[in-house]
Amino acid sequence: MAIHIGYESKPDDGVYPKFLITILMSLEFQVHYGDPMIEVKIILLGGLFVGMVAVWFVTIFIPESSELTILATGLVAACLFILPTFLIGLLIYRNKVKQGERS
């Protein structure tokens, strides 16, 4: 569709400026709000690290615990890291969107 509009456009029909404004707004949005994958990486790697530390702690300091207890401890510890991190990131993103609407 964009190629079709480009072929049918005339020098002063206003298609190019609208296209340019759309591109510039998209780039501004990306620069202003940053890369959302950074938060995902922090959540996943942090949850993995916290889960591994919890498994290591339970394995070393409570050697009589069963495999299921060790697994459950790791999963609970990872969830206790992932959920607050996600909620804080969501709150920060929501505040940025609200500030962007006010400007």
Number of strands: 0
Give the mean pLDDT.
77
Q: Which sequence of SSEs, written as H and E, runs from N to C?
A: HHHH
- Taken together, the total number of domains comes to 2
Helix/strand class: mainly alpha
Gyration radius, to the nearest Å? 24 Å
Helix content: over 70%
Q: What is the number of helices?
A: 4
End-to-end gap:
33 Å
Note the beta-strand portion.
under 5%
| Major pleated sheet | none
Low-pLDDT runs = none
Structural summary, described in words:
- It is a single chain.
- The chain is mostly helical and 103 residues long.
- The protein has two domains: 33 residues, no CATH class; 69 residues.
- Helix content is 85%, strand content 0%.
- The protein has four helices and no strands.
Ordered list of secondary-structure elements with their pairings:
Blueprint: H1 2-8, H2 15-33, H3 36-61, H4 67-102
Question: What's the short version?
Answer:
This protein has 103 residues and is mainly alpha-helical.
Question: Could you name the key traits of this structure?
Answer:
single chain; 103 residues; mainly alpha
